Input
Amino acid sequence: MRTHVAAMTAFATALMLAACGGSPPPPAPPPPQGEEAPPAEVVVQTAPPAEQVEVVPAPPSREYVWIRGNWHWNGAAWVWHAGHYDRVRVGFHWVHAHYEQRGPNFIYVPGHWAR
Output
């Protein structure tokens, strides 16, 4: 009985794949380095707290740069995102995440690699 069910499942799967063109579509290519889509704009009416002092560990190699932590507004409270190492991107420099004050509001500017 189990052999019959397994055979019928395999046959149904093969039939569906044939009806759909034979194989699934290829996966989407990864975004080019340095061109990741920014998150939706975050607008906050209270200033973020002062940056936390972080103990920066030794880098894994000279190919890495420290990306310092920053405050993130989660919709109800400020949450600290700890710093981390990221691989250096030749021809780019890191622009740290920060908030810009515009009138009474603070607008999140995500960290990103720039030329």
